[in-house]
Amino acid sequence: MVDRERVVILGSGWAGFTVARTLDSSKYQAVVVSPRSYFAFTPLLASTAVGTLEFRTALEPIRSRRTKVDFFQGWADDVDFKNKTITIEQAVDDPTQGMALTTDRHAGETKEQREIEKKKSAEKGRLFDLTYDKLVVTVGCYSQTFGTPGVKEHAFFLKDVGDARKIRNRLLACFEGAALPTTSDEMRRQLLSFAVVGGGPTGIEFSAELHDLINEDLAKIYPELIPFSKITVYDVAEKVLPMFDEKLASYATQKFKREGIDIKTSHHVEELRLGAPAERTGSEDENDYHLYTLKVKEEGELGVGMCVWSTGLMQNPFVAHALSDVREAPPNLRLLATSPSANMPPDVKWAVKKDARSGSIITDDRLRVKLIPSDPSSSPSATEAIHPDVFALGDCGIIESTTYPATAQVASQKALWLATHLNKRDVEASAFTYKNLGTLAYIGNWNALFQGGGGGRLQGYLAWIIWRGAYITRTVSWRNKILVPIYWVVNWIFGRDISRF
Prior knowledge:
This protein has 501 residues and is α/β, with parallel strands linked by helices. The protein has two domains: 5-143 and 313-424, FAD/NAD(P)-binding domain; 151-311, FAD/NAD(P)-binding domain (3-Layer(bba) Sandwich), CATH 3.50.50.100. The protein is 29% helix and 26% strand. It is built from twelve helices and 27 strands. The chain has helices at residues 14-22, 45-49, 111-124, 151-154, 161-179, 185-191, 201-221, 246-259, 317-321, 408-424, 461-474, 478-494; strands spanning 5-10, 28-34, 38-40, 59-61, 69-80, 85-90, 127-131, 134-137, 141-143, 193-197, 230-234, 262-264, 269-274, 292-296, 300-304, 306-309, 313-315, 325-326, 334-337, 350-352, 361-363, 368-373, 382-392, 397-399, 439-444, 447-451, 457-460. Strand 1, helix 1 (14-22) and strand 2 (28-34) form a beta-alpha-beta unit. The model is unreliable at 121-125 and 281-288 (pLDDT under 50). Keywords: FAD, Flavoprotein, NAD, Oxidoreductase. InterPro entries: FAD/NAD-bd_sf (IPR036188), FAD/NAD-binding_dom (IPR023753), NDH-2 (IPR045024), NDH2-like_C (IPR054585). Residues 437-497 form the External alternative NADH-ubiquinone oxidoreductase-like C-terminal domain. Pfam families: NDH2_C, Pyr_redox_2.
C-alpha cells in the first residue's frame, strides 16, 4: 500500500464525492478537502426545506466505515503546481458550512491584508500544506446575484442543507407571525407573500413543494390564513424551464396558473431590502415583524415574507485567484506545439486557461487542465500545454469546445469516467463523452416533467413516478434509499412535520 498515489480531491459535491468513492483504494489514496464534511444530494433539498423529507436524507458523510477515503475539513487556498502542494485553510468551525456562498470569504481584503492574515493563521496552525500526486479540482460554483443590492444579505438560497433549514424556519415563522391576533390583514398578506426569483428547475421545484406544503398541511393548521398566502415566481427570461421544450414548459406554466402560483416572466428584480415598502405606513405592532421589500422594475416595491433566490451560478473565487498564474511550471507539462519538433521553451510563464464568458477552467477531452503562456509573444512555438496530473470537472471545469450544461448529471458522469480510467491507468485510451439521460422537474400535486435525452417527453403523474424512482435510484447509501421512501409514506399518512428548530 506504500506505493499508492495520493489523489487530492478539492470539493465534496457531485464530482468530488463520486471520484473519491470510485477510486480503487489499492492503487490510490483518495483525500477529500472540503469546507463541508458531507455530500449534499441537491435534488432533495427543496423537499427538506418544506418538511417532505428530513435533512439527514439529503446528506452522505465523507467519512464512512464503508469507504476508504481520507478527509480534511478546510478551504483550498493556494496551489503550487511545480512542487505538487496545496495550501489548506482549516474550516472545522466555519460558520458558513452548509450555506450557499455568494462572495469570496476574503472579499474586501487587499492583497497585503490577506498575506498578513495568512501569516497570522500559520502561526496559529490554521494553515497547512498537503502534497499530491494527482489533483482533482471540483470546487463548484457560488450563487449568482448579479450584484443586485440586498440579495446577498437578505435573500434565501437553496444550494445546501443549511439553506434548506433557514427557509423552513423562516416559512414557519411567517405563518406563526400571521396567526397572532395583533397582526393586521395587510401585514398577513405581506408576511405570506413568497417570492421565488429564478425560473429554472430549482425555483420551480421549490415553488411546487411550497405550494404542496401550504395546501396539504398548513391549510389544515392555519385555515384562516390560506387566503392571504401567495407564491410568485419571477424570471428575466421570456419563459421558465428553458431546458425543457416549449410544450413541457407551457404545461408547467398552465398548471401553476391553475394552482394559483403566479409566473411573471420578463421581470427584473432591482433590489431586496429589510423592512416594509416605503410607501406603506403601519402601526407599531406591525413593525415587530421582519418584512422584506422586493423592488421589481415592472411592479415597483412589494412587501414579502421571504425571497428565495435561484438565478444561476458564478465562478468560485478559488478558481479565479489561486488557479490563475502558474508560478513555476512542473517538468512534466505536455506541450501542444505548432511544430512536432518544438521543445518546451525555457522561462515561459504559464497560466491556467479559462473560459472568457464563465471563467471556468478549460480542459481537454480527458478532463486535464489546459495551460497557456501568460505572454504569448514569449513563446511563439507553444500555444498551449496540458497538465497530465491536474484535472478539473464539475461546475468549475468545462471541456473545450463543448456546451454541456452545469448539472449534477454531467458532473457525476465526468467523475465516474475519470475514476474508472484512473483505476485502469488508461486516461489516454478514450475521450470523455456525455450521455444525456434526460431532465426531470417536479411541478407539484404529484405531477412532474420528464424530457428524455432522445427527445421523448412525459408530463403528469407518470413523469412523477419516474421522478421519484430516479431520486431513489441515485441516492447513494442504502440507509437513505430506505429512509427516503419511508419519509414519503409517513408524511403522506401523518402530514409534514412543521416544528421549528
